[in-house]
Design brief:
By secondary structure, the chain is an alpha/beta fold. It is built from five helices and five strands. InterPro entries: GlpE_sulfurtransferase, Rhodanese-like_dom, Rhodanese-like_dom_sf.
């Protein structure tokens, strides 16, 4: 059951599994961990935009688009959601518990490291 923390909707594991399984485009689900963490294990099909690069690409993201952010424990992704909310993004969500809580399928390697935010609209 979804809940809010600090004004950010928290998505739980079963809800995220449904979003991934149904290959939804709205919300866009983004992994914000470091490249090494992502390459070790990530949810298949999710793009990576490391947390420290978010301020540099923020202007290329659509403020009207819904986003769910994923990290290792749910802390960095919560901070990304809070940051973007403070920048005027209306529909940002956090995957509560992060990869530590994920018990679904994982992939390894550099599947989708975002070089250009336009890739997210494909």
């Amino acid at each position: 059951m979804a809940f809010e923390q600090d004004g950010i909707k928290q998505v739980e594991v079963e809800e995220l599994k449904e979003l991934v399984k149904n290959n939804v485009k709205d919300p866009v689900i983004i992994d914000v961990r470091e490249i090494e963490e992502y390459e070790e294990a990530h949810i298949p099909g999710l793009p990576l935009i490391p947390m420290q690069t978010i301020p540099m690409v923020m202007d290329q993201l659509d403020k009207e688009q819904a986003y769910v952010f994923v990290c290792r424990s749910g802390s960095r992704s919560q901070n990304v959601a809070l940051y973007l909310q403070n920048q005027g993004f209306q529909n940002v969500q956090n995957y509560y518990g992060g990869m530590l809580a994920w018990d679904g399928e994982v992939s390894s390697g550099p599947e989708w490291i975002v070089k250009d935010v336009k890739e997210l609209k494909a």
